[in-house]
Design goal:
Layout: H1 2-11, H2 19-43, H3 55-80, H4 88-120, H5 126-130
Helix pairs in contact: 1-2, 1-4, 2-3, 3-4
Transmembrane segments: 20-44, 51-75, 95-116
Subunit structure: Forms oligomers.
Protein name: Plasmolipin
Length: 135
């Protein structure tokens, strides 16, 4: 939802007049679509059919790349916001898009952390933490 807000807010402005917003649009739409594809894959448990793919590693790499590219998109979007814009609603939407790009960047960063823990097997649940080997 947050990624959708980023590109929807920018798409509602005259972003084509500023080259910086093309990069932000690319990053936000691309990662929004890929995130939706991963969501559908996990929703329908399709990852179980492709058991050869190391899904925790794939998700960790995806989230790390998304974090890095969203950092660049956030900085680009925030730097391109001009308070002296001749259209006040463009300024408000671009500033809101910058805010939500920052929130999405943080969200992907947190997802990277949890994906790393899942990949390394550091996460545990109640069933695995109750089993102890007393030999």
């Amino acid at each position: 939802v947050l990624g959708l807000l980023v590109w929807a807010l920018i798409a509602d402005t005259t972003y084509y007049l500023h080259a910086a917003y093309s990069w932000v649009m690319f990053v936000s739409i691309f990662f929004w679509i890929v995130t939706i594809l991963f969501f559908v894959t996990y929703l329908f448990q399709l990852q179980l059919k492709f058991y050869v793919i190391p899904w925790p590693l794939v998700l960790m790499i995806f989230n790390a790349v998304a974090t890095v590219l969203y950092i660049s998109a956030f900085v680009t979007c925030a730097a391109a916001v001009q308070p002296t814009s001749w259209r006040q609603w463009d300024y408000n939407r671009r500033a809101a898009a910058s805010f939500f790009a920052c929130v999405v960047m943080i969200t992907y960063g947190v997802s990277t952390f949890f994906s790393f823990r899942a990949w390394k097997g550091l996460g545990s649940n109640a069933a695995t933490s109750q089993v102890t080997d007393h030999a």
